[in-house]
Amino acid sequence: MIDQAAPKTHAEASRARKDIVLGEAVDEARLVRFVAGPDGVVIPDVARKLPGRGMWVAADRESIAAAVKKNAFSRSAKAKLFAPADLADQVERLLAKRVLDGLGLARRSGSIISGFEKVLAALASGKTAWLIEAADGAEDGRRKVFSAARKAPNAPRILGMFTSDELGLALGGENVIHTALLAGRGTDRWTLDVERLSGFRPFTPPDWVVRQNEEP
């Protein structure tokens, strides 16, 4: 379904890498890979495809800011490297694009349901892994969908990181407010990217009332 060079097995997803800030081994799924460009500039490699020796940092804004401030990239590479001050912002943009691109792939594979009534039906079926709500959607509709999510046989996780326009561009539609992502192996891999992105922006806007037992 959603194939973006993500880990193909649980063992691969759980492979440990040394976090250059902590100096400890951490699951690769929780890290962002960086490489040194030919000009000595540190480049984020969120897809883990770029050539060169990887340098790994926890997928959150504070850890990447610390890596820049402490010159951790140069120490790790044993060479003088330049880490831009906006490196964490670069990672956030790249991860957000990756997550949205993954939704586009899911739509083409038939794993995305959009529209108020269709999403309610998907929730009732118990097959929804993620309920994706536009950050700028109306509160009344969102409250009704959240109520249905709480009553679902398998309560989905909730995502509200993107606006209606952003979701529309990813899904090839207009006024995209309510979306359900169905469960599946590809969805599990996509979830790893969402969790990395959550180190840079919250799962849902702070003023939303989600009322789920699990964190959204």
UniProtKB/TrEMBL annotation:
<dbReference type="InterPro" id="IPR029064">
    <property type="entry name" value="Ribosomal_eL30-like_sf"/>
</dbReference>
<dbReference type="InterPro" id="IPR037465">
    <property type="entry name" value="YlxR"/>
</dbReference>
<feature type="domain" description="YlxR">
    <location>
        <begin position="17"/>
        <end position="92"/>
    </location>
</feature>
<protein>
    <submittedName>
        <fullName>RNA-binding protein</fullName>
    </submittedName>
</protein>
<dbReference type="InterPro" id="IPR007393">
    <property type="entry name" value="YlxR_dom"/>
</dbReference>
<dbReference type="Pfam" id="PF04296">
    <property type="entry name" value="YlxR"/>
</dbReference>
<dbReference type="InterPro" id="IPR035931">
    <property type="entry name" value="YlxR-like_sf"/>
</dbReference>
